[in-house]
Amino acid sequence: MAVLTKAAIFIFNFTFLNICKMAKIGINLSTGSLQKEEIIVGIDLGTTNSLVAIMHPDTKQPIVLKEFDASSMVPSVVYFDEFENPKVGEAAKSFLEIAPDRTIFSAKRLMGKSYQDVKNNQSFFSYRIIDDNTDSMVKVQIGDKFYSPIDLSSLILKELKTRAEHILKTPVNKAVITVPAYFNDAQRQATRDAGKLAGLDVLRIINEPTAASLAYGLGLQKLNDTNEKVIAVYDLGGGTFDISILRIVDGIFEVLSTNGDTYLGGDDFDQVIIDYWLNKNGIPKDELIKNKSLTQTLRIKAEQAKKILSKSEIYEDVVEGISLLISKDNFESIIIPLIDKTIDCCKNVLKDAGLNRSQIDTVVMVGGSTRVPLVTKMVSDFFQTDINDSVNPDEVVALGAAIQADILSGNNKETLLLDITPLSLGIETAGGLMDVLIPRNSKIPSKASRQYTTQIDGQSGMRISVFQGERDLVKDNRKLAEFNLSGIPGMPAGLPKVEVSFLINADGILTVSAKELRSGISQSIEVRPQNGLSDNQVEKMLMESIEHAKEDIALRALTEAKTEGEQLLNTTEKFMVKNKNSLSNEELLLTANAMQALQLAITMNDKNLIQQKIEALNDTSRPYAERIMNEAIGKAMSGTKI
């Protein structure tokens, strides 16, 4: 029986959820909270800027950490020099103009995304995003090395960790990290992985709207206070927008509905300003594609203009003979369509929640782009109420994360913490990798599902192996159960859709089921916590996951690259056999050489070399693959049978 083909990391625990305290890492196994002497930071990993915050030990108020007389925000920018050494934050920002192809910005927009997800927005990025023609996570190429969004985000998180340790004069190893409410499981897991790679034990991934609500003091009432609030959180950041409706009762947050746009934010305000300037100066937009340095300069100037026009009536400058003149009226007129998009999302989120505007108690504003006065006005007009923007919109999410960290630490006794799973649960995928469905610290009861497919033509069965632990390879985790899903109808590889579901009930009992969606074939198994781990075993597993984080993730990246390379060789060979009469001798020879080079690279255990050869094979096959596809479409359109 073949294993599944998707890879990731996973978490779960079947030990009875009693409170156990561990001396070395000080974690409460039932609640996921840490001993009071340990510092847990709250992190807002943003598209444009990132921040780290803590609860002040004396004032008991959340504060954002910053160096003396410096900004609290770390630009989410990473620059790689010619030796591939990274610079992060302000040190990297200056390279946006002078080395645009080696300077990464807005990496959050790539988190958990494939090339297919972002290809229509590729012109926005000045660095090279690899088209590998797969659904795997997108990669960025810098020189001869390839970086995933996880790698890039981990560098930003590591910078935040270093900053916090410098300011606090103490090691920082635990964190709560926020993500947009609309982030899917892959994006949330990618964020966890980035934290792990940065040397952080990510105790909780929480939604940004929930964090913002906490920062405004919402949901922090005493446990015997049954007041119910329904709030809207309008979050317009640098690269993303989301609107969430939350119900808060007894300190418990329930997201009723969420809506948004993963490609709508302050970056898009900047872009329409650039387009306005190009139009006024009669410059074709295509000209910027050839000049990445000028593109970045104009992007930076547009950001300045946006900020100035939020307070002044006019902005004026000149760059390389291009007049950069724009008034506040012009600015507001060109961004109205963008704000209208957010208002449409507000309408949809209310509809999904089954509510009308009069039922919203408070509208909370989050994100630096809400500083634009027209945004505030249009949101207030839509909800027909005054909006709440009393907390710094740039800092509000990080402050809320710090409050959540304080709750996990056990210092806040007035907010309810539900039982959680202290270790991760997942299944084995191709290459012996662990794919996590329910991460550590998930509240129970809990349910998670994910779809997989076959990797071999005609594959009639799948082995579902369930594991518990924090390591990237299943051999380093604890095996809990295994069963076979048989009777899958013979289909080409990739066509069957097998949904694997994990359901944990309030007693900590796990039911794992697998169902082939096309045929309806299904199988399930129940796993009981009768052979739970001891406290020392749990401690050992957590410590090993932290100690081996870097090598684990490197090994997982190598395994994924090998799997991707082998799948590409297989599909390329099938394509060549099927279409050999449409290929020239030169095309056949070039492809054979590229395939041989990739096959050799797979044996050399070098992730970057494998990805180089994957890209080389894709570059070789793409022209004739597109030609053959166009010919097939042409025949179909003319009525000829294919």
Q: Which features would summarize this protein structure in a list?
A:
642 residues, alpha+beta, Nucleotidyltransferase, domain 5, Actin, Chain A, domain 4, 5 domains, 6-stranded mixed beta sheet, 4-stranded mixed beta sheet, globular
Detailed description of the structure:
- It is a single chain.
- This protein is an alpha+beta fold and about 650 residues long.
- It has five domains: about 210 residues, ATPase, nucleotide binding domain (Nucleotidyltransferase, domain 5); about 90 residues, 2-Layer Sandwich (Nucleotidyltransferase, domain 5), CATH 3.30.420; about 70 residues, ATPase, substrate binding domain, subdomain 4 (Actin, Chain A, domain 4, Alpha-Beta Complex), CATH 3.90.640; about 120 residues, Substrate Binding Domain Of DNAk, Chain A, domain 1 (Sandwich), CATH 2.60.34; about 90 residues, Substrate Binding Domain Of Dnak, Chain:A, Domain 2, CATH 1.20.1270.
- About 35% of the residues lie in helices and about 25% in strands.
- The protein has 16 helices and 28 strands.
- Helix 7 crosses helix 9 and helix 7 runs antiparallel to helix 10.
- It is globular and about 65 Å long.
- About 5% of the residues have low confidence.
Question: How would you summarize this macromolecular structure in one to three sentences?
Answer:
This protein has 642 residues and is of the alpha+beta class. It has five domains: 34-216 and 392-416, 2-Layer Sandwich (Nucleotidyltransferase, domain 5), CATH 3.30.420; 228-260 and 338-391, Nucleotidyltransferase, domain 5 (2-Layer Sandwich); 266-333, ATPase, substrate binding domain, subdomain 4 (Actin, Chain A, domain 4); 420-534, Substrate Binding Domain Of DNAk, Chain A, domain 1 (Sandwich), CATH 2.60.34.10; 550-637, Substrate Binding Domain Of Dnak, Chain:A, Domain 2.
